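Quick start: load a record and inspect it. Here is HAMP domain-containing protein:
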Amino acid sequence: MKLSLRTQAVLGIGLIEVLMLMVLLYSVFHFISRSTTAEVERRAQSIARVFAATAADDVLSLDLGSLQSFVDAAAATPGTAFARVIDYDGRLLAQAGDADALLQPFAVAGDSTALPDLYMAAAAIEKAGLHYGTVEVGLDLRAQNAAIAALRTKSLLIAAVEVLLAALFSIAAGYYLVRRLHHMKVVVERANAGDYSARIQDRVTDEVAELAQEIDRLTERMRWEHESRGQRVRELEELNQLLQRKIAELRDRS
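Running the structure step on this input writes:
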């Protein structure tokens, strides 16, 4: 299948654009995912450790009222879905937060998984090297995940618009170039057919215009050679006629 220069330009530019955008978007999305995961993990672990250190005395004294007030305050923190305190035997001492989040089994997110809407973290309650229980917290990441999803959607939309604009530009540039080349082709075809009057006269200053100037000079030279050859032919014909008359006169005299 024969592809025009314009089609080749559109396909080539489009392919390069798509490949580069894929690499760029993958790098950006990967960076956002890694940095966001690291920040969420740091934040969750920090909250859990502070929570465990603060609740240690109440756990040792089994002050359930203070623990409940503490988990209520922790769960009321913006972005926190729940907070709970469990003793060393696994018994629940206090908890507060979103009811649906509290019903979910505790699970630490893996490194290879995407950020869940509910990110959980835990920290041990320790005093003098002894384990007295565990603090569990859950962070509500729904708004953050929605913002990241919206960012990805916008990035993909911008990439699609960029590819479209690049395709439109390459189509326009290809069309303009093809028109100029077509004009050159017409001039060359007319010159081959014996019509040397056509000129390209491309006024753009680029390599194509330089080629057009060379074609115009070649056409002008062909016209001059054609006229010179015609003039020589006419001169030879006149000389031939003169010689024939001279020969005829000599025959008459003889």
